[in-house]
Amino acid sequence: MAQSSIEWTEMTWNLTTGCDKISAGCKFCYAEVMTKRLQAMGSPKYLDGFKIVKVHDSELHLPFTWKKPKVVFVNSMSDMFHKDIPLSFIQKVFDTMNQCSQHTFQVLTKRAELLVKYSDQLNWSKNIWMGVSVEDERVADRIEHLRNSGAAVKFLSLEPLIGPLSNLNLTGIDWVIVGGESGFKARPMNPEWVEEIQIQCKQQGVAFFFKQWGGKKKKLAGRELNGKTYDEMPVAA
Ligand code: SF4
What is the superkingdom listed in this entry's lineage (predicted)? Predict the structure, then answer.
C-alpha cells in the first residue's frame, strides 16, 4: 500500500506488475517509468521489469490490515484485465474486496473486452467502482463494454485527454474524471474538449471531476475550469 497524490483517491494497492501498451493513451505510461525506477532501486516486486506481467499473492491480505476505511486505486502500476493475469487471480482480488466492505476500491482498465468477458464470474459488491480509460474517440467503445459489466458504480477516466469526446453516451455511467497529460513531452489538451465534456456530464446528470490541466508545469497549470474546481463524486458513493 502507498499513499497517493492522485486527486481522486487516497492510496494505491498494487497486486500485479508489468503491462504493455495498447493504445495512444499509453504513450508516456507512468507505470512504465516508475517500474524502471523501482527496478533500478532493487525493489523486490519490480525486479522483473515492466515487460513481464506478474501477480503478487503476498499483497492480497493487505486491505484487512488497514485500520480506517480507505479509498483505494487498485493496480496503478499495471492493468488488472491484462490477458496474462488469470481470471482465478482476479477472483481472489475480488474476494478480498468483497470481504473488505469498509473500503472503496477503484479499478481502472483499458482492457474493456476482458472486463466484460469476465464480468459474470466476478462478485460486484457495491464498494467496487469499475472504470475504463478513454483518451479519445478511437477507444470510446470501451464505454459500451463498461456499461455491459456488472459493476454497481461505473466511471470513466478521460486522461490523458488527447482528442475531443463530443458524443458521449453516459447512460449507466456514474462518474467522469478528466485530466490532461503531464510531463516534458505532454500532448496538449484543448480547453474546449474539457468544457464540452463538463456540459455533457451536466446535461446527463453525471458527476464530473476535473483532475488537472497537466502540461510541463502541472502544478502551475492547476485544476480550475473557468474559475471553478470540480470535485464531484458519484452519487452512489
Ligand atoms: S494500460 Fe496502463 S499500465 Fe498498461 S501500458 Fe497502458 S497506461 Fe501503462
Answer: Bacteria
